[in-house]
């Protein structure tokens, strides 16, 4: 089968992946600020930050769409096109979850249970550590491609994948602590608040889950 020369010479979408991760990280970085304003009962600040997060998520979507547009079906790529699309989707999902956190916090003013506050701060911190690890991994994509997914660069990538997994596990443990603290306060909270908090905690945790999925995709790249 003949492949049109124009398709072979099209610009590689790989640099867009790093650009997307940067945009997603900027969006995700709003989540600690959102929670900080929530703890301080500054609902106006929460509303403002939620809007900013949505704007940043929209900018990340624009980069995602450009990356996909630059990924024709017939293109010589160092990795399978479907795997690259999965990587793009997992990175983008981090920003989607960050936006969802902001949206949920504007649907109904929430009070942070006193017993959950220290666990919540640690949970958000560990989630952001996981997102940062995904960012570190994406930053070595270009060197990894140039190394043919082998050698010391591949070893570095796998070490980062393992570290990412450890950070996601730590975030999971903090989420469990938050959930336990939330349900200890159940008697003093309306059921709808418990429901909303559960959704907020899950969305924050999903940021770490999608970050770990980024690592899993890199492991597949190196294994090929």
CATH topology: Methane Monooxygenase Hydroxylase, Chain G, domain 1
Q: Overall pLDDT, averaged?
A: 90
Low-pLDDT windows of residues: 1-10
Q: Which class of secondary structure composition applies to the elements?
A: mainly alpha
Distance between the termini: 25 Å
Question: Which percent range fits the helix content?
Answer: over 70%
Task: Note the main sheet.
Answer: none
Radius of gyration: 19 Å
What best-fitting shape do the alpha-carbon axes yield?
A: globular
Instruction: Give the number of helices.
Output: 9
- CATH classification class: Mainly Alpha
| Overall tally of structural domains | 1
Task: Write the H/E string, N to C.
Answer: HHHHHHHHH
- Report the CATH superfamily: Phosphate transport system protein phou homolog 2, domain 2
What CATH architecture do you see? Up-down Bundle
Number of beta strands: 0
Query: Proportion of β residues?
Result: under 5%
Note down, in words, how this protein is organized.
With 224 residues, this protein is mainly alpha-helical. It has a single domain (14-223), classed as Phosphate transport system protein phou homolog 2, domain 2 (Methane Monooxygenase Hydroxylase, Chain G, domain 1, Up-down Bundle), CATH 1.20.58. The chain is 80% helix and 0% strand. It is built from nine helices and no strands. The chain has helices spanning 5-8, 14-28, 30-39, 43-69, 81-107, 117-139, 141-146, 151-184, 191-223. Helix 2 runs antiparallel to helix 6 (117-139). The longest helix is centred in the last third of the chain and has 34 residues, at 151-184. The two termini are 25 Å apart.
């Amino acid at each position: 089968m003949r492949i049109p020369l124009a398709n072979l010479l099209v610009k590689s979408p790989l640099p867009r992946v790093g650009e997307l991760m940067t945009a997603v990280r900027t969006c995700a970085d709003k989540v600690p600020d959102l929670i900080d304003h929530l703890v301080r009962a500054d609902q106006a600040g929460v509303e403002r930050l939620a809007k900013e997060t949505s704007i940043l998520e929209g900018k990340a979507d624009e980069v995602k769409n450009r990356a996909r547009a630059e990924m024709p079906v017939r293109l010589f790529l160092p990795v399978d096109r479907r795997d690259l699309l999965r990587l793009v989707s997992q990175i983008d999902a981090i920003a989607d979850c960050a936006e969802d956190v902001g949206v949920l916090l504007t649907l109904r003013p929430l009070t942070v249970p006193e017993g959950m506050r220290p666990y919540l701060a640690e949970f958000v911190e560990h989630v952001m550590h996981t997102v940062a690890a995904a960012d570190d991994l994406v930053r070595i994509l270009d060197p990894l491609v140039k190394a043919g997914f082998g050698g010391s660069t591949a070893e570095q990538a796998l070490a980062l994948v393992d570290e990412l997994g450890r950070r996601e596990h730590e975030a999971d443990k903090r989420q469990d602590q938050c959930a336990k603290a939330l349900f200890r306060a159940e008697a003093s909270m309306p059921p709808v608040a418990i429901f909303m908090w559960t959704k907020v905690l899950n969305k924050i945790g999903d940021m770490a889950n999608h970050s770990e999925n980024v690592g899993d995709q890199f492991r597949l790249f190196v294994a090929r």
